[in-house]
């Protein structure tokens, strides 16, 4: 197998190239806010949020578009990264405060290799296409059909873990029965598929538009392999949560929760918000931000995060992780506080109460 990527030391992590990323930050919600220590003025928090530069982040975009960050007295700034590894290196180096769309597998890999990151919320679940050239679209009906094929994946990307786990569960040895080739970015992966260097691309939702333009065919989705898998988690450095008990990060989550509500109730807003940086027609933008396989949720969903951690260990993707208690790297308290504040601020809104019920089912007895 070619280019199998297993980070085993902090030194190896540091060797990954850091790049510049779109970052955003925010604080916002409209209810009563605590006054700062300076007179009667409310304190303004500043956050820098990194996310993938190819298409942005719908919940983040909506929160900015609707003024939810301003409501929470958050000042938002943006920095964009070409890959999850670059973004998380930026987080570790202090260039950003939050990683928003760097998957689940990548933060967990960094944690396995010594990074003190905390998962505090979510952004995306599912939504990653498995691609082939149009002429080959009828060749892949079951996982058995991937045997003997050269399969491209994105280094440290969640869909890669979902795919390898599905192969393992089907009794297919991903180290012997298929030839997995890892690429640093989704763009590199699509180019390899288009040129015939790989037969299949286990891709990313952020590359779906480019895949359509290139005439590539979708033969499956990550959701088909694992309907409940999580992807983009809201992650930060644990040491940043000590100031004001993580107040800025709680406020950031409140803005994301409100954005999630808006997206669910009026998907057109997601289109308008994304058009500020996606210079495309409405139909194309809608196909990106409202793709039905992509489920946007701000809930940390620690049950599924832990499940992926165990999958990564069981398939040999990460090593020497048995001594790590992953619960210590998952903080559900901030999200729960954010929800409870929204329930108090909007007592007539059933949506936030329903989200709390969902949170309790997906996170009970979890967290650090």
Automatic annotation (TrEMBL):
Domain Solute-binding protein family 3/N-terminal span(s) in chain numbering: 46-268
Keywords assigned: Lipoprotein, Palmitate, Signal
Signal sequence residues: 1-23
SUPFAM superfamilies the record matches: Periplasmic binding protein-like II
Entry coiled-coil feature ranges: none
Domain of life: Bacteria
PROSITE patterns xref list: PROKAR_LIPOPROTEIN
TM region positions: none
Homology family: Belongs to the bacterial solute-binding protein SsuA/TauA family.
Name of the protein this chain belongs to: ABC transporter periplasmic protein family 3
Native source species: Schinkia azotoformans LMG 9581
């Amino acid at each position: 197998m070619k280019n199998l990527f297993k980070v085993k030391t902090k030194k190896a992590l540091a060797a990954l190239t850091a790049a510049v990323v779109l970052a955003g930050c925010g604080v916002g919600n409209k209810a009563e806010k605590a006054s700062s220590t300076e007179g009667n003025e409310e304190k303004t928090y500043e956050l820098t949020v990194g996310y993938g530069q190819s298409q942005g982040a719908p919940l983040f975009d909506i929160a900015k578009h609707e003024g939810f960050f301003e409501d929470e007295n958050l000042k938002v700034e943006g920095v964009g990264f070409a890959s999850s590894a670059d973004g998380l290196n930026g987080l570790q180096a202090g260039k950003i405060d939050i990683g928003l769309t760097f998957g689940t597998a990548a933060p967990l890999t960094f944690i396995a290799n010594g990074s003190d990151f905390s998962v505090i919320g979510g952004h995306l679940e599912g939504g990653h296409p498995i691609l082939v050239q149009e002429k080959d679209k009828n060749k892949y009906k079951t996982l058995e059909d991937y045997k003997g094929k050269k399969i491209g994946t994105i280094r440290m990307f969640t869909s890669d873990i979902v795919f390898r786990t599905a192969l393992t569960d089907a009794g297919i040895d991903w180290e012997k029965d298929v030839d997995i080739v890892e690429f640093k970015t989704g763009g590199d992966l699509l180019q390899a598929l288009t040129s015939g260097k790989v037969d299949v691309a286990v891709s990313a939702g952020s590359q779906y538009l480019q895949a359509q333009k290139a005439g590539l065919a979708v033969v499956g989705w990550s959701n088909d392999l694992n309907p409940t898998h999580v992807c983009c988690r809201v992650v930060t450095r644990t040491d940043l949560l000590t100031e004001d008990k993580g107040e800025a990060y709680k406020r950031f989550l409140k803005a994301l929760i409100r954005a999630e509500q808006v997206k669910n109730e009026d998907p057109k807003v997601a289109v308008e918000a994304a058009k500020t940086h996606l210079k495309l027609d409405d139909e194309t933008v809608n196909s990106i931000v409202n793709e039905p396989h992509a489920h946007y949720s701000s809930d940390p969903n620690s049950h599924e995060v832990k499940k992926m951690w165990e999958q990564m260990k069981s398939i040999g993707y990460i090593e020497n992780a048995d001594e790590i208690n992953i619960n210590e790297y998952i903080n559900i308290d901030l999200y729960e506080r954010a929800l409870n504040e929204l329930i108090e601020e909007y007592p007539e809104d059933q949506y936030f109460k329903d989200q709390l019920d969902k949170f309790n089912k997906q996170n009970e007895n979890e967290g650090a």
